[in-house]
Amino acid sequence: MDILPPVGRLLSHRWLRMGRGGKRWLVLLTIGITFLSLGVAFVLRDIYLAWALSPVLHYLTLHFLPRSVRGLLLGTLGLGLVMVAIYQLRHSLPAAFVHPGRRDIAEAGYRHQRRGPKVVAIGGGTGLAVLLRGLKAHTSNLTAIVTVADDGGSSGHLRRELGVLPPGDIRNCLAALADDEALLTQLFQYRFSQGAGLEGHAFGNLFIAAMDGVTGDFERAVLESSRVLAVQGRILPTTLEQVTLCADLREEAGQLEEVEGESQIPLARLPIERVFLKPPYVRAYPEAIQAILDADLVSIGPGSLYTSVLPNLLVEDIARALCATRAPRVYVCNVATQLGETEGYDLGDHLAALGAHVARECFTHVLANDNLTIPIPSDWTVALVPPRCGPGVSYHLLTEDLIDAQNPWRHDAHKLAQALMAICAEVG
Q: Same structural domain for residues 279 and 329?
């Protein structure tokens, strides 16, 4: 039972760990109030000794009690009044100073102060979401730049029916960067299993699409959704233009077959010669470019090589920003191959595919998993990616155990985040 709710919430850990000077100003405030109280006490003491008190004032000023008892009573009363005043002030500040979803101004102040290195993560799919879950424990200064080429499932249906940008990857990033795994986050990820017109749709996709319709602005829809979930960081689309991901696939006879649609490329189960966008030249989202240029670290991947990572880099302005930024750019290679995309690939094959589509200068570091001891069942459609690559590379190659023991085809979020933050600290 919360016996003293004002006191308990006033002295909550959020207030005490706001950082960047929060506690020092609280101490300074306390010292200032103490000096002010002493000054008033000296003045009152002179009046108290110089004037003859009437019987009424004698009792009102507690003159009949010892001074130590009077001091204790007045001090307790003063402390109580200060606590009540701050508690009420905290809840009466204008709502504009507190983000929607924050419980109070102390929480908002803590989130504002708890920053960290400026990290930009580029990708899409579940790989990017896994990375973001790990990174948010190290910094709240996060920016996720997400591909908008998805055309399958719920996202593809909404894209075709409503003309909105595909919200699926953005929804996954919102859930990954949400303040906690509360019921609201679970609601965003909930997928309808039945119902005419609803089956297969994720609630978060419908919410973002509805917000886009209300505001008439996809950017605003993502921003408002971020506020609802109290997201740590930003989620930005690579571009606001409708794009289609296409691929040239090599048939058994050696001829090339063009396939349109991100969801159709891995279904063909043919070697991928190259991927490209239609239209080929689209404008990058300006905030995404600025985030890359201002970053302390840029992560490229993990995620499906051809359908999550490369679609971002095929937007020319994004590739140019990566080459121009002074931040370390780390390509995070997947820990396992992917059916229909990278079957039989090692690290060198991943790098060769990147080099065939974009300039190698787009990244300065390569981070790969070197734990190949976890057995993969023979009936699985994936294999661990060996960290082999050819000689003469111009980037820093870093390998370590990054695998999730429970899901060996994926990265461990915390291991991966720690490895990236170590690169950031070393270079910074």
A: yes
